[in-house]
């Protein structure tokens, strides 16, 4: 194992989190895997420790729950883990009119997508800066670049993650620490079903989680402040800058509102 290199991955039980955990294990990092479904984490831990000979610790935890971030930080202290890389992957979205979606679920989304990302960065970034190594990979989204009618809170949380990551990138780079925001478009993960996006255009033909995780991993290693995978996605973001904000806003409204 790369000496003193532990990677903490949130939302590691499936999708992008699982695939990113595999990549960091292959690179020799010890792992702290966090998600609600501990049975899946334990299965993944057995796979990765067996294949790569790295230590893997698991913690079943809902990071949207009050006090959960503190519980996670306390766990790393008890286990003697100095987090070298933090992967803020856990998050979810909901599709529907803001005034109709369940209020508590939307509050949970903010606590997970924004609150946990912020608190975990604050908990572990000082140690990275003191050691002058390591970094943070935040999972943002192409949604971060525009408003999202009928997914208003989700889009807003990802805009926060993007802005937050860019700022930390500038603050941390002079200390030898990396901070990257990975902004994929649609990916074939469980997020699609949870958000109510099954059968939507682009989601049925979306790339798989393994290939997208590789793209995000490589961008983090290269210390790219922002990375948008795919030429089509890059062109889409570029074109949005050339038209009034009402144009993409209206397009997203029609996409998210349609059956």
UniProtKB/TrEMBL annotation:
<dbReference type="InterPro" id="IPR036291">
    <property type="entry name" value="NAD(P)-bd_dom_sf"/>
</dbReference>
<dbReference type="GO" id="GO:0016491">
    <property type="term" value="F:oxidoreductase activity"/>
</dbReference>
<protein>
    <submittedName>
        <fullName>Short-chain dehydrogenase</fullName>
    </submittedName>
</protein>
<keyword id="KW-0560">Oxidoreductase</keyword>
<dbReference type="Pfam" id="PF00106">
    <property type="entry name" value="adh_short"/>
</dbReference>
<dbReference type="InterPro" id="IPR051019">
    <property type="entry name" value="VLCFA-Steroid_DH"/>
</dbReference>
<dbReference type="InterPro" id="IPR002347">
    <property type="entry name" value="SDR_fam"/>
</dbReference>
<comment type="similarity">
    <text>Belongs to the short-chain dehydrogenases/reductases (SDR) family.</text>
</comment>
């Amino acid at each position: 194992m790369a000496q003193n290199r532990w990677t903490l991955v949130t939302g590691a039980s499936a999708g992008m989190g699982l695939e990113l955990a595999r990549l960091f294990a292959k690179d020799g990092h010890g792992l702290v895997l966090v998600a609600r479904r501990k049975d899946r984490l334990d299965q993944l831990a057995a796979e990765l420790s067996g294949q790569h000979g790295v230590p893997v610790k698991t913690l079943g935890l809902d990071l949207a729950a009050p006090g959960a971030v503190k519980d996670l930080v306390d766990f790393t202290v008890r286990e003697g883990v100095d987090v070298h890389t933090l992967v803020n992957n856990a998050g979810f979205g909901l599709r529907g009119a803001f005034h109709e979606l369940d209020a508590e679920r939307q509050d949970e989304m903010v606590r997970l997508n924004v609150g946990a990302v912020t608190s975990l960065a604050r908990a572990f970034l000082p140690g990275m800066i003191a050691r002058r190594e390591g970094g943070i990979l935040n999972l943002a989204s192409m949604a971060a670049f525009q408003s999202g009618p009928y997914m208003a809170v989700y889009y807003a949380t990802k805009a926060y993650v993007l802005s937050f990551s860019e700022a930390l990138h500038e603050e941390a780079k002079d200390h030898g620490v990396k901070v990257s925001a990975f902004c994929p478009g649609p990916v074939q993960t469980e997020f699609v079903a949870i958000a109510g996006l099954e059968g939507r255009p682009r989601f049925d033909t979306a790339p798989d989680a393994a290939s997208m995780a590789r793209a995000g991993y490589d961008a983090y290693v290269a210390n790219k402040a922002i990375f948008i995978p795919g030429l089509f996605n890059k062109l889409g973001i570029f074109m949005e800058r050339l038209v009034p904000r009402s144009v993409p806003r209206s397009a997203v409204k029609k996409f998210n509102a349609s059956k």
